[in-house]
Amino acid sequence: MMEIIVIGTGNLGLNLCKAIENQYVINNFAFAKAENKNVKNTLKLVGYYNTSSTTIDSLQAPLLQSITTLPEVDLIIIASPDDYIASVSMTIKTKAIIAHTSGSVAMQAVSNHANHGVFYIPQSFSKSREMNFEELPICVEFNNSIAQEGLEELGNQLSSKLTYLNSQQRGRLHIAAVYMNNFVNHCYTKADEILKEAKIDASLLYPLMNETLAKAQDLSPYQAQTGPARRNDVQTITRHLEALKLNDRNMYDAITQSIKNTYGN
Fold first, then answer.
1. Which of 99, 170, 188, 264 is most buried (most C-beta within 10 Å)?
2. Domains in the chain, start-ordered, CATH in brackets?
């Protein structure tokens, strides 16, 4: 039985706890004990801690005092915000494997521990949505065979898509993920604003959203590109810029210029 503690109860932390436990364990405090209910039954969530609040357990101890007295387990996963990873790692006194979950932070942030690594999942998590970990890629990095064994055991229990990336590769993957997820979603937000202002049902564009993704996967994003910027349709681009609000024009123009530069227009 591999015993695990998760530090951080944000979107990723809570989903990770749920995946390990195969149940949603939450109460008024940020610490809980439960028996694992995974099919293979080799993982046990010993506890989880909330790094966004000073209320850590029933004693309401401050975070950095509370995690200095963690019970000894096999693996501690730091799922806190990136800026806190190094300080949380320095505070923990343990012989356990320590791994963080960030895509942009190097493994060195937890190198004060003898056995350390990274357990990164390139996915967007929400507390309100159920996530099937079996289909998610999990990217691991480790400094020795002990950390490798622990992270591989957890990764293989949760997913069938375990892969190995070093810190530099993972950083590039994270940048790509920001483009593919965060930036694209912001474009969806701006499109939604335009449609609402015109009192148009957003569902009219759902087939287009689906087809855009399908073509990018089938053809490649480069080959799938269409639109006025791709064909250098100056008149249409000018009309669009004139119709947009002043503070939205820079974004439209910047993306348009990037597309033109990519295709040599």
1. 99
2. 2-165 (3.40.50.720), 170-263 (1.10.1040.20)
